[in-house]
Amino acid sequence: xxxxxxxxKEEALSILKLPEEKxxxxxDSVYQxxxxxxxxxxxxQLLTNARSGDCTxxxxxxxxxxxxxxxxxxxxxxxxxxxxxxxxxxQEQHLARHCIGLSGIRFQDDEIxxxxxxxxxLKTKTQTQxxxxxxxxxxEQAKILREAGVDRINHNLNTSRSNYxxxxxxxxxxxxxxxxxxLQGMGFEICCGGIVGLGETTEDIVDMLFEIRDINPxxxxxxxxxxxxxxxxxxxxxxxxxxxxxxxxxxLARLLTPKSDIRCAAGRxxxxxxxxxxxxxxxxxxxxxxxxxxxxxxxxxxxxxITNAGFTYYIETES
Length: 319
Ligand code: SF4
Fold this sequence. Notes:
By secondary structure, the chain is α/β, with parallel strands linked by helices. The chain has helices at 9-16, 23-38, 80-92, 109-125, 139-148, 164-167, 173-185, 202-215, 243-256, 268-271, 276-279, 299-308; strands at 41-51, 97-102, 130-133, 152-154, 189-191, 194-196, 219-224, 261-264, 285-288, 312-313. It has one domain (9-318): TIM Barrel.
């Protein structure tokens, strides 16, 4: 039985380097922990891209970055109609959460006020849980969003501290951590995860997951890079992203943050197709209907996937 208490970085590394024949035993152990804290439930999240493209930052993986030539739709603010439409889908299908992402790292106060007005309307017309991915906020801006009804903030670390300058030079890792700590101090729930496939070593993954463990977020989304044409990482080496390797990373995330929602985010449909039963041994949360700039699986197909794997589609209103 693997344990997570006081796990050292060497022990964590040994999990990522576990020979494939030992994977079933790891999954069995991790499933016991998942079952203890999450039962057999899987929550589904829906993601709305509320502001798309034209970011000032140069995150190498991102189709919305200032260096990206990816052919994506760009807009300053999603229409209220689209945001509400997605909100009603979350409500009517009893999805766990409505995630809303905005490209950009810093926002003017009037932009925050405009967005807060939309959140207020969404909260008045639906009873959904809202999580926003919205760059670095000032405490005053965060307060406005909190009062508007934002329940949770997503801010990913993406990779290790030492690998960070290789994927982004327009802001620092520490700025990300400082932003998270500030929001946590204000009482926001935190969603904080990363991306695998950014040229990192296994040690980098361990370092990132230890940083995330220290933050102790409510949710840990793990993305597996889907190299997008036009981004700096369009030719990234993803050969090592085998199902077994991806599963070991998800298991380690569960072991280090056992009570958090462990979410298999972007890349699920690519790297873990056909491995869902094993994936759900560690994972209790997934997206339906796609990602910020990439498509995904429909809600109906996602529900079918969960039940076919022997797990239960988590209906938020019954909790
Ligand atoms: S990840 Fe966020 S901050 Fe980085 S380039 Fe993309 S939208 Fe901008």
